[in-house]
Amino acid sequence: MSTPPVDAPSRPPVSRTAVRATVLLSLCSLVLLVLVAVGWEPLMSADDSVARTTHRWAVDEPGVTHTFRILSDWVWDPNTMRLLGAAVAAWLVWRRGAWWTACWLVAVSALGTLVQQGLKAAVGRPRPWWPDPVDTAHFAAYPSGHALTATVVCGLLLWLLHRAGPPAALWRTAVALAVVSVAGVGLTRVWLGVHWPSDVLGGWLLGATLVAGAIIAHRRWRPAPPARR
């Protein structure tokens, strides 16, 4: 029996849980954004304390730091994540004929890039500065583009995989890889001293908000399949 295209199932209703999750994530993202923008002292102090501690570890553990640089700059780099999303979009068109879902995937990924670049320019938060840096980064600090992009791409791909009804072993493996990637990229950015912890938290929250909103949009506006004759 052939597998139906991704765009083929009937359109399910948008659940209240999904809407509430999106609203809650949006509010959390907004609160954190405001706290960062106004420089709320308890948050700034916590950021500084964690950043100084992890930077000492990074300097004292060059082997771990080198591994984290490879993971952060190559494996979990935003461009790598975007290429993964683009490859899945191409596969959706080539093997499943799911043009709408493929365009949706690319569009949400692009929106994530626009959101993080726009907020970086608007907030203009300086990155941590060290006399003995172990890595460098460009543009402003908030939010972490690595954390946001990984959350968006991994979240969307997990949802698409879940809709396809994968075998249990494949699903568990995919979830584990996604969790390790999203959590790991945040850890590496703080360890390498190029982001404050709240930059990473902001990237996670904004990415999760985009994923939740994108899922609602897909359920609500995906074109209905043509009627069978």
Automatic annotation (TrEMBL):
<feature type="transmembrane region" description="Helical">
    <location>
        <begin position="139"/>
        <end position="161"/>
    </location>
</feature>
<keyword id="KW-1133">Transmembrane helix</keyword>
<dbReference type="Pfam" id="PF01569">
    <property type="entry name" value="PAP2"/>
</dbReference>
<dbReference type="InterPro" id="IPR036938">
    <property type="entry name" value="PAP2/HPO_sf"/>
</dbReference>
<feature type="domain" description="Phosphatidic acid phosphatase type 2/haloperoxidase">
    <location>
        <begin position="102"/>
        <end position="215"/>
    </location>
</feature>
<dbReference type="InterPro" id="IPR000326">
    <property type="entry name" value="PAP2/HPO"/>
</dbReference>
<feature type="transmembrane region" description="Helical">
    <location>
        <begin position="21"/>
        <end position="40"/>
    </location>
</feature>
<protein>
    <recommendedName>
        <fullName>Phosphatidic acid phosphatase type 2/haloperoxidase domain-containing protein</fullName>
    </recommendedName>
</protein>
<feature type="transmembrane region" description="Helical">
    <location>
        <begin position="173"/>
        <end position="194"/>
    </location>
</feature>
<feature type="transmembrane region" description="Helical">
    <location>
        <begin position="101"/>
        <end position="119"/>
    </location>
</feature>
<feature type="transmembrane region" description="Helical">
    <location>
        <begin position="200"/>
        <end position="219"/>
    </location>
</feature>
<keyword id="KW-0812">Transmembrane</keyword>
<keyword id="KW-0472">Membrane</keyword>
